[in-house]
Amino acid sequence: MQILKQTKGKLLGVDFGDKRTGIAVSDSLRTMASGRQTIAVGGMEKTAEKTAEIARELGVVGVVVGVPVNMDGSFGPRAQHAQKFANILQFKLGESIHVATLDERMTTMAASRYLNETDTRGAKRKQVIDTLSAEIILQNALDKLKYMQ
Questions:
Q1: Which of 38, 61, 73, 116 has its CA 20 to 30 A from that of 135?
Q2: How many whole angstroms separate alpha carbon 73 and alpha carbon 53?
Q3: Contact 115, 132 (CB under 8 A)
Q4: Among the residues of 25-121, which ranges form H helices?
Q5: Which domains does the chain have, with CATH numbers?
Q6: Using CA atoms, how far apart are residues 47 and 53, in angstroms rounded to an integer?
């Protein structure tokens, strides 16, 4: 995350999933994250390629990928999978756009709680939960960057 602190401009938030991947973007002042879209192209390589394409189109300077760390702080298979995705994405973006990871523990739970409170159900829920999770991941990153020394 330190490298993202040193750059200025918009950031992209990513909630990587095997079936669907949520995408969020910040404003250029990095005060607020907004859900952008969900992509479902299938496979880690294709998802990384599509995410890189979106990052370039939006002119972001960095990407934050959520990593689902276990509650005890260890890296299980899902966290390792997300880390692998982040590495592939960094390769596809090159050195011009930096990729950082952020512990995303309980962001999907927070997104689910919000959708329950707003009575979002069924197909609509599936369409927005990944984007909302990406938005929460990115907002957490923005808040963390604001207070980094």
A1: 73
A2: 32
A3: yes
A4: 44-58, 77-93, 107-117
A5: 2-147 (3.30.420.140)
A6: 10
Six token digits for residue 67: 């990593």
* Count of beta carbons in the 10 Å neighbourhood of residue 94: 8
Distance CA 13, CA 21 (A): 10
Find residue 24's DSSP bridge partners.
Answer: 13, 35
Dist CA 114 CA 10 (whole Å): 25
Phi, psi of 58 (to 5 degrees): -85, -10
List, for residues 78-91, the tens digit of each pLDDT value: 999 999 999 999 99
Q: What torsion, rounded to 10 degrees, do the Cα atoms 69, 97, 132, 123 define?
A: -100
pTM listed for this prediction: 0.87
CA dihedral 85, 91, 94, 97 (to 10 degrees): 10
Cα torsion 79, 54, 11, 107: sign = negative
